[in-house]
Design the sequence.
């Protein structure tokens, strides 16, 4: 399993989610931080996802 994970990291174009574990007060604050990160990092893509305790049950 470790080999597959390492290969996925090395193959360009495959998106691998990485959590920064940052918690923001609001979605707007997250969007501002995302824009700041995106302006200096052209390789990674950042997303704002709701905290598990705020996401509706499925």
Sequence:
């Amino acid at each position: 399993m470790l080999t597959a994970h390492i290969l996925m990291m090395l193959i360009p174009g495959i998106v691998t989610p990485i959590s920064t574990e940052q918690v923001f007060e609001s979605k707007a604050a997250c969007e501002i931080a995302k824009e700041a990160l995106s302006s200096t990092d052209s390789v990674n893509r950042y997303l704002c996802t709701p905290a598990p305790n705020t996401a509706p049950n499925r």
